[in-house]
Amino acid sequence: MRNYILLIALFISTIIIAQDAKEVIRRCNKNLLQIKDYNCKAHIDFDIPGLNIEKIDGTIYYKRPNKFRIKSNGIIFLPKQNPNQILSILADTTSFMPVFIAKETVNGLLCDAVQMVPLKENDIAAAKIFVDTKGYIQKAEITSKENGTATVTNKFDATSKYGMPCQTLISFDIKKFKVPKMVSVELNAKTPSKTSTTTSTKTTGSIKITYTSYLFNTKFSDTVFTDK
Amino acid sequence: MLKLIGVELYKIYTKPRSYLGLLAITIIVFLIHIAMYSGGQEYLDFIFSTFKDSFDVSGKILTGNLIAFIILQMLVVQMPLLVAFVTGDIISGEASGGTLRILAGKPYSRSHIFFSKFIACAIYTFVLVVWLGILAVALGHLLFGSGDMMVLKTEGLVVLRDGDILWRYGYAFIIAFFSLLLIASLAFCISSFAENSITPIVITMGLIIISTVIGTLEVPLFEYVKPILFTTHMIIWRNMFDKPVPWNEILVSMSIVLSYTCLFTGIAWFHFTRKDILT
Questions:
Q1: How far is it between the farthest Cα atoms of chain A?
Q2: What is the pLDDT of residues B117-168, one digit of tens each?
Q3: A12: pLDDT confidence band, cut at 50, 70 and 90?
Q4: A213: how many CB neighbours lie within 10 A of its CB?
Q5: How far is A140 from chain B (nearest CA, A)?
Q6: A residues 31-50 closer than 8 Å to B (CB)
Q7: Which CATH number do you get for residue A40?
Q8: CB distance B59–A76 less than 8 Å?
Q9: Would you state the pLDDT for residue A196?
């Protein structure tokens, strides 16, 4: 009899947790689903070991479900796991199942932590999001099979609309770059200790994106994603 | 002196071999431009594959700035040969042709004759560098447009923004000119000792190849020798594309390059002003 009670309690708690997680996702999507497209100005700062690159300004274009582009006059490096992936993960209710984990404080705000578990074969092994009471994603951790884990930390201000941040900090794992000197044609340079272009030495890089001048649902042309 | 320089320049102008260098640069640069225009993206994808595996790279990579940089890197070995072709012949060629004795018999001092020849060599070297600059940078921009430039290094990658590049090329070509002037002075020095035009060219190229091989090999014994090899310092132009620019390193290397130039020119002058010109 005691075992039955325990089993029923476990079943009910699982349903409650699942409902909690779905409620959190609904809270998020209540904001995000209002966005069909957006564009905004972006200022990008890079801090990536082995990559000496100056900050740059550009324009971000996004269209539901997963069209994303940063247009600028120069070269931009973004990690494979970009913040836009969160929008796609949240919108795709058939590929990911939300599981409530705990309540945690992020950026000084009490947030619900939800693990998005992939239900189908997916490059994303796991995604964990931290959602505040307004339904804003304060933080997300995306782990992909190929590229390790990226942590996305968002900042919001009074002008933030539809759950879109005013600043995002992306921290991510990168492999230390080692290029043979015959490829880099640096004849005087010393070849890295391991001549292979990939070594196991991992390190962390970060990219900070500051967003301004958001324009939502302007129905801009798809050509911005394809033109040069 | 100006008249003598004019005469020496005219001699260079009339020799067919003087145009070999310009022609070779033109052909090589055009071939690289055509190759990059047709399949440059695949080439760059391979070169930068290490970074593309980890990042989404957006923006124009195949730019005139990058192509000019690739051309300069590829011509590291060829340019000294082209300079040595002309400068190695300027004294010994006249010695073998029998005109050096006639020239020495004119009412000009040996030093005047010597330096007029050297200045003519420097002008020829300058013309080669300027021609390379026009073809590599100007034509590169015309064909591929301007844009940011990615410089691959053994320990990573430097991305230079479009507006921050042309001045670097300016300095890089000045450094390249002085580096090639060192080769000109070496060939000139050997030329002052030789009686035929082939020997200085062959010896100069031999020395460059040996120095380059020693500089490339990572053997502990050679590590002590590398800092005194002139080829180590001749390719310092590449450091102009570092961020920040290692000015101290460049100045030290340029001082060594200029010291070698003065040394070779001094030896040549000492010998030329004292030697018996019998042919």
A1: 79
A2: 899 999 999 999 999 999 999 999 999 999 999 888 877 889 999 989 999 9
A3: low
A4: 9
A5: 19
A6: 49-50
A7: 2.50.20.10
A8: yes
A9: 46
Sorting pLDDT into bands at 50, 70 and 90, what band is A18? low
Going by pLDDT thresholds of 50, 70 and 90, the confidence category of residue B98 is confident
Give the C-alpha separation, B129 to B142, whole Å. 19
To 5 degrees, how large is the angle CA A118–CA A121–CA A126? 35
Calculate the CA B142 to chain-centre distance: 24
Residue A193 lies in a domain: no
DSSP secondary structure letters along chain B: -HHHHHHHHHHHHH-THHHHHHHHHHHHHHHHHHHHHHHHHHHHHHHTHHHHTTEEEES--S-HHHHHHHHHHHTTTHHHHHHHHHHTTTTHHHHHHTHHHHHHTSSS-HHHHHHHHHHHHHHHHHHHHHHHHIIIIIHHHHHH----EEEEETTEEEEE-GGGTHHHHHHHHHHHHHHHHHHHHHHHHHHHH-SSSHHHHHHHHHHHHHHHHHHH---HHHHTTGGG-HHHHHGGGGGGGSSS--HHHHHHHHHHHHHHHHHHHHHHHHHHTTS----
Is any Cβ of chain A less than 8 angstroms from the Cβ of B7?
no
CB-CB under 8 Å, B156 with A177:
yes
A191 in a structural domain: no
Say which amino acid occupies B85. F
The answer to whether the beta carbons of residues B24 and B82 sit under 8 Å apart is yes
Residue A186 lies inside a defined structural domain of this protein: no
A144: tokens are: 């992909």
CA distance B146 to B62: 9
The DSSP secondary-structure symbol of A193 reads: S
Residue A220 counted as domain residue: yes
* Closest Cα in chain A, distance from residue B154 (Å): 5
d(CA A183, CA A228): 28
pLDDT at B279: 60
Give, as one character, the DSSP assignment of residue A48: B
pLDDT in tens, B31-74: 999 998 888 888 887 777 777 777 888 888 889 999 999 888 87
What is the domain range of residue A105?
2-175+206-225
* Cα distance between residue B39 and residue B165, in whole Å: 24
Q: Three-state DSSP class for A227?
A: coil
B155 touching A, CB under 8 A?
Answer: yes
Residues B155/A194, Cβ–Cβ less than 8 Å: no
Structure tokens of B264?
């070779």
B157: nearest CB among A72, A177, A197 = A177
- Structural domain total, chain A: 1
Classify A27 as helix, strand or coil: helix
The terminus-to-terminus CA distance of chain A in angstroms comes to 69
